[in-house]
Amino acid sequence: MLTSLINLKITEHQNNLTIQRPASGLSLQGHISVPGDKSISHRALMLGALAKGETLIQGLLLGEDVYSTASCFRALGVNISQLNAQQVRVQGLGLGNLQEPVDVLNAGNSGTTLRLMLGILTAHPGRFFTVTGDSSLRLRPMSRVVKPLQQMGATILGRQGTTKAPLAIQGQRLRPLHYYSPMASAQVKSCILLAGLMSEGQTTVTEPALSRDHSERMLDAFGANLSIDRETHSVTITGPGHLQGQTVIVPGDISSAAFWLIAATIVPGSNLLIKNVGINPTRTGILEALSLMEANITIENQRLIAGEPIADLRVRYSSLKACEISGDLVPRLIDEIPILTVAAIFARGTTVIRDAAELRVKESDRIAVMATQLNRMGAKITEFPDGLEIIGGTPLIGTEVDSYNDHRIAMSLVIAALNATDKTAIHRAEAIAISYPEFVSTLKHISGQGFKSQ
Ligand code: S3P
Fold first, then answer.
1. Ligand 1 atom showing the smallest separation from residue 362 Cα
2. Ligand 1: which atom is nearest the Cα of residue 190?
3. Statement: residue 373 has pLDDT above 90
4. Which domains, and CATH codes, for the chain?
5. What is the distance in A from the centroid of ligand 1 to the CA of 390?
6. What does pTM read for this prediction?
7. Exposed (0-12), middle (13-18) or buried (19+): which is 156, by Cβ within 10 Å?
């Protein structure tokens, strides 16, 4: 039977996605767009909440992580309403006016929600907050933001020596800080900048390499007093700031586009146009890596919308060669390493990824999970403490694999399955809804009649 293009099984007991490619003739074709950028979506809701007046957000990502941010800020007294499929309105309370919630704030699976929110909440004098997350987020390290906030005078207590959520916060008047961050992390940088926005004086964050700069761009657009030193990777904010509500147009998420960039590159005969993708240079490491690998990608129709660069990406099938990824490139493609690992399986030669130990503390241990799950399918991947070695050119054979409840792992395994013989069953694929609820329907759309139902 060829009626169903892809067999998506979702039952109460088993959230599996099963994929079997046809013996021949599969190619990915068409024009698509991807959902709104997740990092920008979180920030638009948060800055909208802290601003005076109304913020209109166009193209907000309607994924579970962003719903977590919306529900936390609603519990803090902010009115957030969805006007239609495209537009969300935030009624800002003005700086320092979030209300004490009556219950625990739950950030779900979202590290960005929890870490950025900590910077905001700790700077609300006289109010008490408790924050937590799901079982994955409760395992993730929080000291990277707790320590600098404590240096600013924050009162935070939590599990395991205040390194893990749940955390309890007694809001304080904070003092400014010059923080030399040991890691290139946009979550750390943004958390401190938000705390600095609400403190009196100059707060500076200096990072060892440049992490994504969406907070800086959006704070500037909302009227904060910000200066950037590109030589030293430093940002200074002068508080207390005043934010004014804005219209934010959220570009398509390059981290979501990455799945299609690699899918079309590895599936013979493919030709896709991905429209309206954010190409902020702090996020385009994936394009640089794929260029090193000799992928066939062109950047068309470049423009600047609401302070963020956007383009359409044309990708055609091409044979790939291995590459080495390390150093300053890593923070600019950190979320794309799972799907890049899939690309490397289909490249000539051995790809080496280093300096990426951060992957071990993402939604899952992405180094271990990618190596074990793809090796189950026949890949030749070796783990390093801080990366992976992938020997390209080994064919994949479908089998049972597990996402470990990690959205980017689940989608990477789906793309790997497109080039595997036999059937691949991806367990716990429902995690995809964290960042890309339309992923499977887009796959059906671009794969035409290529898939066989069971
Ligand atoms: C994010 C920053 C990155 C990234 C995460 C989103 C953000 O994390 O991996 O998915 O929106 O600030 P780190 O800042 O921890 O590197």
1. 9
2. 12
3. yes
4. 2-36+251-453 (3.65.10.10), 38-249 (3.65.10.10)
5. 24
6. 0.96
7. buried
